[in-house]
Task: inverse folding
């Protein structure tokens, strides 16, 4: 039987003094209240109400059982309240600082439609998994090699001036024989300062004979972009970032560069929701290709 429903009807009728008024308090039809109380009486083995009068008068057994019934109803109400709060508990997610406010807001809206409530914390690639380990966030989008990623973001080079070629080859950045004038540099933003991206760029730099100073890691995406504006320097970035910054983007010739992302989470359910139910929204935030965007 529905023990909680029976106790709720029992408590409501006893407090209201009649089956009709008690049913209204419990927000159920009067016949339903009567059936639930009858089932509770059968379950407990004794009458709770004296039905010889028009009023709902408790029997001695009913008076003895009323305090326990009230405790059970209060516990059930507390359980429902806690369940609602638990559903609203936000999933704090560590994300790259490359995600725009608009894209994160749209991801949050997508999640709410699935009864998942997100909050975001931006962090560097080397910090995000550690935030999960120390329980400062529930999950993180972590940087991994592209071949291991759930999401893959192709990278290229962006400049303020529109390049003539469809592909930028690093060897075109070599200075002339005279060595006069500043050499063009490639700026790496912090999100790409990870071995599986940075080391490939450095190997490509060395293989085409660029100077070591021609590839530099910036302290922030803002600093990297500032170094490219009003100069001939180039920013290593995604096509979406280039559009946001108003830069012209081209793929890099001779070397394949891409960000890979996966999820680390304290709970498998959180990781599953992010990898599957919110996969497209996260792809939009990251600028990943090959997803429903």
Result:
């Amino acid at each position: 039987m529905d023990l909680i429903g029976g106790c709720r009807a029992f408590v409501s009728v006893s407090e209201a003094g009649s089956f009709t008024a008690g049913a209204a308090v419990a927000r159920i039809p009067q016949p339903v209240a009567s059936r639930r109380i009858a089932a509770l009486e059968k379950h407990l083995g004794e009458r709770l109400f004296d039905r010889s009068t028009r009023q709902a008068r408790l029997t001695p057994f009913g008076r003895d059982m009323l305090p326990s019934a009230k405790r059970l109803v209060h516990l059930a109400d507390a359980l429902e309240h806690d369940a609602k709060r638990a559903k609203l508990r936000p999933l704090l997610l560590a994300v790259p600082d490359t995600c725009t406010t608009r894209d994160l807001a749209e991801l949050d809206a997508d999640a709410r439609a699935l009864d998942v409530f997100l909050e975001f914390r931006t962090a560097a690639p080397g910090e995000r998994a550690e935030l999960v380990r120390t329980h400062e966030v529930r999950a993180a989008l972590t940087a991994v090699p592209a071949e291991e990623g759930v999401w893959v973001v192709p990278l290229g080079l962006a400049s303020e001036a529109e390049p003539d070629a469809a592909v930028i080859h690093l060897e075109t950045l070599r200075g002339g024989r005279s060595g006069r004038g500043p050499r063009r540099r490639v700026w790496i933003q912090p999100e790409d300062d990870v071995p599986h991206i940075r080391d490939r760029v450095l190997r490509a730099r060395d293989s085409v004979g660029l100077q070591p100073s021609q590839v530099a890691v910036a302290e922030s995406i803002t600093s990297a972009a500032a170094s490219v504006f009003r100069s001939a320097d180039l920013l290593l970035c995604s096509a979406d970032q280039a559009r946001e910054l108003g830069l012209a983007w081209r793929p890099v010739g001779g070397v394949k560069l891409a960000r890979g992302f996966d999820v680390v989470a304290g709970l498998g359910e959180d990781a599953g929701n992010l990898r599957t139910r919110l996969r497209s929204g996260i792809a939009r935030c990251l600028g990943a290709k090959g997803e429903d965007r």
